[in-house]
Amino acid sequence: MNILSTSLAFVGVALLMGAGCSKDSLNPAEASAVPLAVQPNDGETNVRLDAAILLRFAGPVDRAVVERNVHLMSKAGMADSLCPTSTSMGHSSMQVAMMDSSMMRHLAERHATSGRFSWSGNDTQCSFRPDSMMTPRTQYMIHMAPEMMQMIRSRMGDAGIMAGHGFEMMKDDMMFHFVTMDTLGTGGGHGHH
After folding, report:
1. Is the C-alpha dihedral spanning 76, 21, 24, 26 positive or negative?
2. Between 24 and 146, whose confidence is greater?
3. Torsion-angle region of residue 187: left (phi > 0), alpha (psi -120 to 50) or beta?
4. pLDDT tens across 72-120, in order?
5. Which of 92, 96, 174, 177 could, after both became Cys, cross-link 144 (CB 3.0–4.6 A)?
6. Cβ distance 77 to 111 under 8 Å?
7. 18-32, 34-48, 88-102, 148-162: which range is least confident on average?
8. Which of 14, 9, 165, 7 is nearest to 98 (CA)?
9. Is 118 left (phi over 0), alpha (psi -120 to 50) or beta?
10. In the chain, count of helices (H) and strands (E)?
11. Of the candidates 17, 9, 67, 12, which has an alpha carbon nearest to the alpha carbon of residue 39?
12. CA angle 41, 42, 45 (to 5 degrees)
């Protein structure tokens, strides 16, 4: 499958996943059609600064695997001038990082937003709530590492698994992007990628 058809398939499934979702839950009927539904939707704008990241799985998953492999990163966090390894690695844009597994590993370990997971009783839905409000008018990335995607495939099959934004060595990762709301009312014309 080429990059264009993969992207179009991804956008189509992301649109299906997002229809009718409320702030704190995913619509079970729509989410059950795919192994993994994520909110905020990929490319969504005006996301509330106190929003949680919601994940709904078609079947039970291993909580520890999900919590080890889901990372929320902000574009602003990537520009950390105090990073102890920035002189040797340098930080790049989100687009470049999505093609570099060592950069993504570094960002996940050192620059991911801290927060807490909470789970449904049957291990099919969880939310990640950042410890503090997100930054206004800022692009964020929800990164899901290969270990989690492999677990989903092994438990729920390949049917409906969509490719993420990763390319080359990052093709087994899944990445969603969203932009937070503009609290100053200055417009926020931030687009996706």
Report:
1. negative
2. 146
3. left
4. 988 877 766 556 555 444 555 666 666 666 677 777 777 788 999 999 9
5. 174
6. yes
7. 18-32
8. 165
9. beta
10. 8, 8
11. 17
12. 75
Query: Do 40 and 50 touch, CB atoms closer than 8 A?
Result: no
How many whole angstroms separate alpha carbon 152 and alpha carbon 66? 10
Q: What is the pLDDT of residue 34?
A: 80
* Length of the chain measured in residues: 193
- 188, two tokens: 């926020």
pTM of the full predicted structure? 0.70
In this prediction, residue 39 carries a pLDDT of 95
- Give per-residue pLDDT as tens, 147-158: 998 898 888 876
Residue 52's identity, in one-letter code, is A
CA dist 61 and 144 (Å) reads 14
Give the highest mean pLDDT range of 8-17, 155-164, 175-184: 175-184
What amino acid is encoded at 59 in this protein?
G
**Contact status, residue 141 vs residue 72, Cβ threshold 8 Å:** yes
Amino acid at 44: E
- Cis ω before 84 (30° cut-off from 0): no
Residue type, 7: S
DSSP SS3 for 40: coil
Give CA 61 to chain center in angstroms: 17
